[in-house]
Design brief:
With 452 residues, the protein is an alpha+beta fold. Among the domains are: 167 residues, Beta-lactamase, CATH 3.40.710; 129 residues, 3-Layer(aba) Sandwich (Beta-lactamase). Helices cover 26% and strands 16% of the residues. It is built from 11 helices and 17 strands. The chain has an 8-stranded antiparallel beta sheet with strand order 3-2-1-17-16-15-14-13, with helices on both faces. The protein is globular. The chain starts with 5 loop residues before the first helix and ends in a 27-residue tail after the last helix.
């Protein structure tokens, strides 16, 4: 009889475990909305609005998840995942989350900061040499010209979108299109992000570092910083150090073949205000080069975009946000310290963003003062959204996490991401009750991103 060595036996066990499909892990369910201070009657308004939007063909389908005090108080899937196939939307439907990727990558950066492998004040050139000398599209003697940046860009500049780096539109478009950039979309690229970020460093940027809040490739650069510091691909880093510890089993950059039946189809809002299915490989009603279904199923699977590349579910993303709302910990697994989360969700840009009506932290839009923000949201709330008409927010004062998913690009006048915020907040009728037991101290060994 053949005798297995310990190493061989361990390898067989690992293979066996890998063959066992991971199951989605839901947060605990509240006994009722009222048990956590929400109104069932008022939440029914949210259900009705989503149904009406589906019936009016403003959207194919939606998933809305509301968590209060760590417990799922509302979860509704409306409409269809794929209208043409007659496939119903389901709570475990997988969505392209685009810029909701930015929060995950920002957490990854701060994990490296906590390990002492980065500082937010570090120049980016410490990791990516091409950023030692960057340029800006400015003016000389009243004429448009490419001029040197007045200082180096830092990690903090990228986290706060104050590096002056846009998506290359407007006057910058000729430079960026010649270099092969198509705004935020990289899923169809056969070259790794290192190639694209090295090229980006040679292009002129929109503003001087620290001068303005400019939305663009900042978090894609941060994703590549993670790759270079950790020695892992961004996909491997997020999988090992964020998604797996948090049991985010359906969060990845490209879809495994066995999960293709759960991916929501992309639609666009046409001229008549109703949806049109985006065709495979090309735009629907938009001139945007990335407005089709996207190469998330059969693409090259090489370029891992830190700014807009992830796929996820409402359940997975709610687990990620609950970790942040808990001060960096979920179910005994700690990724960040409470002080780091507080730093990330504080305003770092003064009045540069939204003229001070809202602030911007290290990866998030933040509310500093209720009443100053042009919408619902208590002081301390942090949030953002994605290009495919998705959004999320966490409200520490209300102990609330909300994730809303749909798949529209472009969304046109559809404003469900705005309406869902109102409809959730109007359903709050009291403080959260039925408090869960205090979180236990993590027994998990500290993550060592890239450490071997």
């Amino acid at each position: 009889m053949m005798r297995l060595t310990l190493r061989a036996a361990a390898a067989l066990v690992a293979l066996a475990l890998a063959a066992v499909p991971l199951r989605a892990q839901a947060l605990p369910k509240a006994a009722s909305p009222e048990a956590v201070g929400l109104s069932s009657e008022r939440l029914a308004r949210l259900t009705r609005v989503m149904k009406d939007a589906v019936d009016a063909r403003q959207v194919a389908g939606t998933v809305t998840l509301v968590v209060r005090n760590g417990q799922v108080a509302y979860l509704e899937a409306a409409g269809q995942r794929d209208r043409e196939a007659g496939a119903a939307m389901a709570p475990d439907t997988i969505f392209r989350i685009a810029s909701m990727t930015k929060a995950v990558v920002s957490v990854g950066i701060m994990m490296l900061v906590e390990e002492g492998r980065l500082s937010i004040s570090d120049p980016v050139s410490k990791v990516i040499p091409g950023f030692a000398q960057t340029t800006v599209l400015g003016t000389v003697n009243g004429r448009v010209a490419v001029v040197p940046a007045n200082r180096q860009i830092t990690i903090r500049d990228l986290l706060t979108h104050t590096a002056g780096i846009s998506y290359g539109g407007g006057a910058l478009e000729p430079w960026y299109s010649r270099a092969g950039f198509t705004q935020w979309y990289f899923a169809d690229r056969a070259e790794p992000m290192t190639k694209w970020i090295d090229t980006l460093a040679t292009l002129p940027f929109e503003a001087q570092p620290g001068e303005r809040w400019v939305y663009g490739y900042n978090t894609d650069i941060l994703g590549n910083v993670i790759e270079r510091v950790s020695g892992q691909t961004l996909a491997a880093f997020i999988g090992e150090h964020i998604a797996t510890p948090l049991k985010m089993v359906d969060t990845a950059f490209f879809l495994p073949p066995e999960k293709t039946s759960r991916l929501a189809a992309v639609y666009a809002v046409g001229a008549d205000g109703t949806i049109v299915r985006a065709e495979e490989g090309k735009p629907a009603v938009s001139t945007l080069p990335h407005s089709g279904q996207g190469a998330y199923v059969s693409g090259p699977r090489v370029a891992f975009s830190g700014g807009a590349g992830l796929l996820s579910t409402a359940h997975d993303y709610a687990r990620f946000m609950q970790m942040l709302l808990n001060g960096g910990e979920l179910e005994g697994v700690r990724l960040l310290s409470p002080t780091t989360v507080k730093l990330m969700t504080s305003n770092h840009v003064g009045t540069l963003y939204q003229n001070g009506a809202l602030g911007w932290g290290l990866g998030f839009e933040v509310v500093e003062q209720a009443g100053r923000a042009p919408r619902y949201g208590a002081a301390g709330e942090f949030s953002w959204s994605g290009a495919y008409h998705t959004t999320y927010w966490a409200d520490p004062a209300e102990q609330l996490v909300v994730v809303f998913m749909s798949q529209l690009l472009p969304a046109g006048p559809t404003n469900l991401t705005t309406r869902v915020r109102t409809l959730v907040n109007q359903a709050i009728i009291g403080p959260p009750t039925g408090l869960p037991a205090p979180a236990t101290t993590s027994t998990r060994k500290p993550a060592r991103p890239g450490g071997r």
